[in-house]
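**User:** Once you have settled down, spend some time on the protein underneath, comparing sequence with structure tokens, and judge whether sequence predicts the tokens.
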Amino acid sequence: MPLSQIYPLPTVDLRQNTDVKEAIGLANDAAIAETWSVLHHDCGANLSGYQLPMEDMTTMQIDHRPIRTVSVRDVDALSAHADAWDRLGRSAPQRLPTLLPDWMDAFFRHRVGEQQSWFCTFAYLGDRLIGVLPVVVSPHPIFGRARPLLMTPSDDITNSGDILLATEHAHEALTALLQEVLREQPAYLELLLPAVRQTSPLWAATAVGLPEHVVMKGRVCRYSKIDVAAGEKAYLDGLGQLKRNLRRYRKKLDERGPVSVEILTDEAAEPGFIHEFLELEASGWKGRHGSAIIQQPKDAAFYTRLVETFAARGRLEWHVIRVAGRVVAAGMGLRCGASVALPRIAFDETYSDCAPGTLLTGEVNAEAFRRGHLIELNHLSEAAWHRNWNMPQEEYVNLHLVRRSFTARLFHQTVVASRIFWHEDLKRRISPEVKTRIKALIRRGKATQSKHRRPSIQ
């Protein structure tokens, strides 16, 4: 089946479309510019006095009350909105720490690339905050900063780019936020929101359509969690042989010395423990391969800032196993409402025969059912070891908002559709054996390239 039938693109009538001017101004190549000029001449498109439609935000109203929007580009200026932002984040149905101002503060300080910029847009209904849209601006690979690509903050540490919208005003808030984004970046081609959770108000807000954007669902991520709300019996029934292994591992660990398990919350979870945690993580294979957090200055700065700000609000947790006072396994927890996210875990490899990381996971899971008020433990990732625990997975979906301009639909929407087709159709048809061979070839090629790379002149 042709790609155009699976992801049909809207028909553009050049006789009625004034965005041809955009394409002509875009084209760096003289031949392309000449082609568009011919199209303009033959089709009679009106290119004079073209302006992007940008409405005044105050014209948007709910119950005769105007929605006020404001954008911030300085990290210190975020503090004026932090309390209202935090209240909206804690009550959001997604229950994700990435939605909170403390996470975004650390991201904007330490995760924005050198060629990128950022801004954060807020929507207020009266004095009440009803929407937050943080945006990272990146140059387009061909058109550069003239036609940038926008994305909500997301990377290999921030695994979801979902946003905050008041559920009862989701569509109005999103529309106002997007109009504010248009004022800040009038020429952007797309806004990508990676890994949006199924409970996000974004789905209802986009279901009725957006006047300036084509809405496209993209790649699906499947993140693991412990469903505390389902009850401890369902959890234990899913462990199978692992329950016996946990008893065996604990017996072996007890033979190494006095064992203590600590679930540190609130004031007991001190941010200064981050230094011991990072040293523990770097003591193993990650440190040997150069991929430990402490070996990546930006990553270390990000996590240090993150635990400081979460601890200040009493939402940081440390989960620790000690043997004779020595830390042999540790994990980080970040609370958002009735959910605890578990972004990092580390263990001492000299105790690997006792599986201290597995034992710590079991202790954290068991404690979650005893705490009474938790709904889930969210790993916000998909790892092979999660399968040992028979963890349920939830789909998080990339949401592409492609501008309805002629340039975006011609030059970018087709690219987005092709990538979606690859990830969600073609890639799934490749057998695991072929995928393994491809990965092996890639690794071999990288190793050969590294071996023959010329040494740098000191």
Notes: The two ends are 56 Å apart (CA to CA). Residues 57-211 form a domain with the Aminopeptidase fold (CATH 3.40.630). The chain has three domains: 3-43, 57-211, 225-394. The first strand starts at residue 61 and ends at 62.
